[in-house]
Automatic annotation (TrEMBL):
SUPFAM superfamilies attached to this UniProt entry: HAD-like (SSF56784)
Signal peptide residues on this chain, from the entry's feature table: none
EC category: hydrolase
Organism, scientific name: Vibrio tritonius
EC number(s) stated in the UniProt entry for this protein: 3.1.3.18
Cofactors required: Mg(2+)
Family, per entry: Belongs to the HAD-like hydrolase superfamily. CbbY/CbbZ/Gph/YieH family.
Catalytic activity reported: 2-phosphoglycolate + H2O = glycolate + phosphate
Keyword annotations: Carbohydrate metabolism, Hydrolase, Magnesium, Metal-binding
Binding site for Mg(2+): 10, 12, 175
Function: Specifically catalyzes the dephosphorylation of 2-phosphoglycolate. Is involved in the dissimilation of the intracellular 2-phosphoglycolate formed during the DNA repair of 3'-phosphoglycolate ends, a major class of DNA lesions induced by oxidative stress.
Protein name: Phosphoglycolate phosphatase
Domain of life: Bacteria
Length: 226
């Protein structure tokens, strides 16, 4: 295996369980517009494709966004969602097991680490700081950093060009098929985690190069002593 130099991590469902706060914000936004309440369990299924899709699904009460929702309504709901999400203070979100220790060990070993998330960029730096992991990342790319989100490889390709690494030297770590497809589309390897948000589908169905129940398994894959 060609030595990995650059590792990109998804955020929600990979490093951080953010659904409790996202659910509060989505529920408040749809109710403010006179739509039925959404539960945390529903939102756990709806996340993964960015905030616009999340709020569209919440309004539709379905993974399929209703074509009957007007653009004006969805835009209004998105503004409300952003406001309510900021007001949560992200105090109900938490890192998954072994995230911080794994990132610390990877940084010590000289790997270049980045975040590629479909979450809106304006929320990401503060969340990383709040959970004590901002220092480990050289690049932090939100869902609006580029014209296209994952599963498009645009952000991954940008990172490879910036850091002058080949696709064989990059690894994408994520919990959803969007992460695995982005890696495949960029020609790099992928590490899929079983515990995140993948619309009820096993991450193994997307055929990542590695599958694990714990992010700490990254150290074994990269032959690093914990």
């Amino acid at each position: 295996m060609t030595p990995i130099k650059l590792i990109a991590f998804d955020l929600d469902g990979t490093l951080l369980d953010s659904v409790p706060d996202l659910a509060i914000a989505a529920d408040q936004a749809v109710q403010a517009l006179g739509y039925p309440s959404v539960s945390e369990a529903q939102v756990r299924d709806y996340v993964g494709n960015g905030a616009d899709i999340l709020i569209g699904r919440a309004l539709s009460q379905s993974l399929q966004v209703s074509a009957e929702l007007s653009d004006e309504l969805r835009q209004k709901a998105r503004v409300l969602f952003d406001d309510f999400y900021e007001q949560t203070g992200h105090k109900h979100s938490h890192l998954y097991s072994n995230v911080k220790s794994t990132l610390c060990r990877l940084a010590e070993q000289g790997f270049t680490l980045a975040v590629i998330t479909n979450k809106p960029s304006k929320f990401v730096p503060a969340i990383l700081e709040q959970h004590g992991i901002a220092e480990y990342f050289v690049d932090v790319l939100g869902g609006d950093a580029f014209e296209k989100k994952k599963p498009d490889p645009m952000a991954l390709n940008w990172l490879m060009e910036k850091h002058q690494v080949s696709s064989e030297q990059m690894l994408m770590v994520g919990d959803s098929k969007n992460d695995i497809l982005a890696a495949k589309n960029a020609g790099c390897r992928s590490f899929g985690l079983t515990y995140g948000y993948n619309h009820g589908e096993p991450i193994s169905d997307s055929q990542p190069d590695f599958v694990a129940d714990d992010i700490g398994e990254l150290l074994n894959v990269l032959e690093i002593r914990a």
